[in-house]
Write a structure and sequence with these properties.
This protein is of the alpha+beta class and 181 residues long. It has one helix and eleven strands; from the N terminus they run E-E-E-E-H-E-E-E-E-E-E-E.
């Protein structure tokens, strides 16, 4: 005699757009020596995989949109505006024979710094990783903190994009951009 181990009577329907729908019908498993028992999580895995594919498609669309936006921005030449005192409106300071940008950084964190100049734009990306150890009455607690930030600047027309140097010390990141000769 067959015993029914799992009986699912509902049909799941997921809408995938205005005119397209996918239907998943669960299987009924019975216990007989010749039949294998169905995995009760199989339907959830199918749903998860469909949602994952949709999210990957959305991410590809967003990546393409941002790439198009960045290429449009690169084609627009934005002038650097100098105020009194030699500070350019974007945060770049004119030091005579070079320009300088200074950013604050966590001096207790390990820093991964990426400085890139392309098409008149300077981009600085900083990944900070910090390990925190605390002693409590219950023992030692170890936690980790990570943060990432990025800042972009419009370079002055006479900035030498190919010879940019930077250093991190005492809680600051100093980027030096030489002027073209």
């Amino acid at each position: 005699m067959k015993k029914v181990l799992l009986s699912v009577m509902a049909t799941l329907t997921l809408a995938l757009g205005a005119n397209n729908a996918t239907t998943i019908s669960p299987k009924v498993a019975t216990s007989t020596p010749a039949q294998a028992v169905a995995d009760p999580f199989e339907q959830m895995e199918k749903i998860f995989q469909m949602q994952l594919k949709q999210m990957e498609q959305m991410q590809k669309q967003m990546d393409a949109m941002f790439k198009a936006f960045e290429s449009q921005q690169a084609q627009i030449a934005l002038p650097a505006i100098t105020s009194s005192g030699g500070v350019i409106s974007s945060g770049i300071v004119d030091k005579g024979d070079y320009y300088e940008v200074t950013l604050k950084a966590n001096k207790d964190a390990k820093l991964n710094i990426k400085v890139e100049a392309k098409n008149g734009m300077l981009s600085i990306r900083v990944d900070e990783k910090k390990e925190i150890n605390k002693k409590t009455p219950f023992g030692e607690v170890k936690s980790y903190s990570t943060s990432t930030y990025m800042q972009s600047f419009t370079l002055p027309a006479d900035a030498d994009e190919k010879n940019i140097k930077y250093e991190a010390k005492d809680g600051q990141i100093v980027v030096k951009i030489p002027k073209k000769k």
